[in-house]
Amino acid sequence: MEFSIKSGSPEKQRSACVVVGVFEPRKLSLPGELLDNAARNHISDIIRRGDMEGKAGTTLLLHNVPGTLCDRVLLVGLGKEKEFREREYCQAIRVAVKTLNETGSFDGTVFLTEIAVKKRSVAWRIRQAALIAQEATYRFDQFKSKKEELRRPLRKLTFAVERRNELAPAEEALQQGLAIAEGMALAKNLGNLPGNVCTPEHLAGAARQIAEAHGLDCQILERTDMEALGMGSLLSVAKGSHQPPKLIVLQYKGGKPDNKPVVLVGKGITFDTGGISLKPGPEMDEMKYDMCGAASVLGAIKAAAQMQLPLNVTAVVPAAENMPSGGASKPGDIVTSMSGQTIEILNTDAEGRLILCDALTYSERFDPEVVVDVATLTGACVIALGHVASGLFANRDSLARELLDAGDEANDRAWHLPLWEDYQEQLKSNFADMANIGGRAAGSVTAACFLARFTKKFDWAHLDIAGTAWKSGAEKGATGRPVPLLSHFLLARAGKLN
Ligand code: BES
Ligand code: MN
Ligand code: ZN
Q1: Peptide bond before 482: cis, by omega within 30 degrees of 0?
Q2: How far apart, in whole angstroms, are the C-alpha atoms of residue 287 and residue 270?
């Protein structure tokens, strides 16, 4: 889809469809009033008759509105003006784009982006609108032999701003929104691919493609390299699979050479059967999404590169498949991590932390400014926070604050959970330096505590995205989260968030 920004009056738009909002009950937004004046009350008459009350989520499509240059006018209900916030704004944009896409307009000019949202800038409104528009038209039909084609899909969207001096910041925000949307689409595509296609090898290929397209450095470490580095923990997870593990490193150098990089580490288990501690059958197919952490850091670094942020960003992705076999790790096995610390594997299904700990130790060599890891790490996080917020842990409160704010700004929220020493004793092992599980209580916290033992040398945060990376049920599919959070975190660090 093509996008542009415009400032001008709604009645003068030569467009297949002009979109304006209606507050509840029956109150036209400002651009709606302008349109109505030009149309000599044609629209307000229709509203007065009760065809459009302004309830959030409702729409009314009008044809041949007099006094205008557009073919159609789409009215979008916004709910009560007093209650109009981020949520309502995003919903209105989503409904508008979906309706435009399904009602035969090739192009649309959206005036909803002129409506003030409390505490949010014009740039925020445009960035979100671009993101939502791309999101609303996302499809994954690569494996359908008959694709559902829309007869007249939406080709071009124009977002309106009130003032000419808003054009420049809006244009920049549009480009940011589109870059983030592309990162999200990449993350969704990788996530939705089945496990037999999206192998560690495939992830490595995807990383190489990003590197080529955006001029990043890409390095893939093979099993032999990991052996030489002493990554006994990562390797113990890959042992049961015919798919060789990969450690993927992507480096974007948009900042000064001596600026320390932000390192993003993503869990890349391309399928998690549980290993010898085999998972139960129902819904096991969803464990193809166990590489969504990896997909999100690839999406975020791609977005950063596309936005040409003045930052250095490094993505580190440990990728492996967790399978049961004659070669697989067994409960009770003890491995030595790259850090030298030994781990008793009491449950082979707690494999995420086993690959992450070596990737985190490896990250030391980049002399990071901060390290943020992203992982579909624990079922317990889904129990704690559901599908709304990602779990956030950090060994520095100011870093946690930054990530919470980024999630808030991005409409991709996280919630801060504790990393207190008190939880560490649950990881005691009789035979090794630590066990890889900490019992049923506070499962997400003990998983984070395990990782904390490998991140003492730098500022570090951990995002548990087990509940937010994909949707189950009828709308099963990857969400692309937390690419928006990560991208906004990077935008803010680059001073580019308006
Ligand atoms: N990938 C899973 C976590 C997961 C489970 C995410 C369900 C989303 C939905 C992870 O590797 C895992 O299996 N974790 C175990 C840890 C346990 C054995 C301590 C879990 O959460 O059950
Ligand atoms: Mn597991
Ligand atoms: Zn897993």
Answers
A1: yes
A2: 8
240 CA to middle of ligand 3, Å? 14
333 - beta bridge partners?
345
152 is catalytic: no
Q: Characterize the bridge pairing of strands 18-24 and 27-28.
A: antiparallel
Judge whether 399 and 459 are in contact, CB under 8 Å.
yes
Residue showing tokens 């919630």:
415
Separation between Cα atoms, residue 421 and residue 407, nearest integer Å: 26
Tell me how far apart the alpha carbons of residues 46 and 120 are, in angstroms, rounded to a whole number. 32
Q: Of 127, 353, 481, 493, which is the active-site residue?
A: 353
Residues of 197-230 as b/e, b for ≥16 C-beta within 10 angstroms? Answer: ebbbebbbebbbebbeebebebebbebeebeebb
The domain limits of the chain are 2-161, 181-493
Nearest to 114 by CA among 170, 156, 180: 170
DSSP state of 362: H
Backbone torsions φ then ψ of 414, nearest 5 degrees: -125, 165
378 lines ligand 1 (CB under 6 A): yes
Question: Can you identify the CATH homologous superfamily of domain 2-161?
Answer: Leucine Aminopeptidase, subunit E, domain 1 (3.40.220.10)
The answer to whether 329 touches 348, Cβ cutoff 8 Å, is yes
Average confidence (pLDDT) over 324-348:
99
Query: What span, in angstroms and rounded, lies between the C-alpha atoms of 403 and 114?
Result: 28
Rg of the chain taking only CA atoms, in angstroms: 25
Within 8 A by CB and 6+ apart from 168, the residues are: none
Q: Which fold has domain 181-493?
A: Aminopeptidase (3.40.630)
Is the CB of 290 inside a 6 Å radius of any atom of ligand 1? yes
Give residue-wise pLDDT tens across range 369-412: 999 999 999 999 999 999 999 999 999 999 999 999 999 999 99
Pairwise CA distance, residues 92 & 116, whole Å = 13
Residue 357 CA to residue 242 CA, distance in Å, equals 22
Tell me if 323 CB under 6 Å of ligand 1.
no
Given a contact cutoff of 8 angstroms between Cβ atoms, the answer to whether 466 and 382 are in contact is yes
DSSP result, 85-141:
-HHHHHHHHHHHHHHHHHTT-SEEEE-GGGS--TT--HHHHHHHHHHHHHHHT----
Categorize the per-residue pLDDT at 227 as very low, low, confident or very high, splitting at 50, 70 and 90: very high
The residues facing 217 across adjacent strands are 251
Minimal CA–CA distance to 370: which of 204, 259, 295? Answer: 259
